[in-house]
Amino acid sequence: MSQTQNLNTELSEYSFGRIVQAFLNYLTVEAGLSNNTILGYGRDLRDFAIFCDSNSVKHPDKITTNILYDYSKKLAKQGKAEASINRSVVAIKMFLRFCKMSGHITDDLTIFLESPKLWQKLPVICSKDQVARLIECPDEKEPYFSRDRALLELLYATGTRASEVAGLKIGDVNLKIGYIRCFGKGNKERVVPMNKTAVAAVEQYIQQLRPKLVKPFSGDFLFLSRTGKVLSRIEIWRIVKKYARLTGLSRQMTTHTLRHCFATHLLSGGADLRSVQEMLGHVDIATTQIYTHVDQDRLRSIHKKFHPRG
Length: 310
Hints:
mainly alpha, 2 domains, 3 strands
């Protein structure tokens, strides 16, 4: 049974679980959010529905400001991270707006829900030399050398998320021109260029190893496991962590670290913010701007150049 099916089964046990299911269907069809985001919202609303049931609230129109306040206090007492609490609050706000829009409630209760103020944490970045060490770590003697090298090259060359790489198919990769087509959050399509090193690595994998991994059920997916199944994002994460451990970068390096490095190294090399935003698939440029604050060498050079006592 899939995670979505499990969640629907759990929701059906609670009083207004079916309304939550209708809301999640609305997000899928109308809002186009990713499956992971919808599952996250669904779990948050399942927990909220459990809390409401335990307080004899059987329908959204019985939700009061006291219920919202008590639930916010409960989240805080559980010691959850601010980001997790913030997501729960966002999920409840969106659900209440949906209930008002669909006639399940008459009052707008969202004004009584406050999200915690989040500290903006700077992403962990590795140096260019550290990334090079990671990419060069796969040993040519290993059976899956060409796949792993192509995977690492592609992640760093394009800044794609692990889930996006897992979904790549042969037809999404243009080796002649040097670009990939991927689908990000909300199933939004974007095209990202590849450098010559990544193109060569992917081409070697496709020609030499992939034909040996292909099974009748493999389809056109680019990266395959030893059994011919598509590499999941979790397996891609494990491969990156494996080589990070071998190069002494286990604490710093993940698949998402390579995405952070891609953006920061581009900006430090002179790329403009809008282009990096487009390649990363960020809707809001403010999300991309965080990478302008993580390159310490660049900050020092700017300070030295422009400060009157630099």
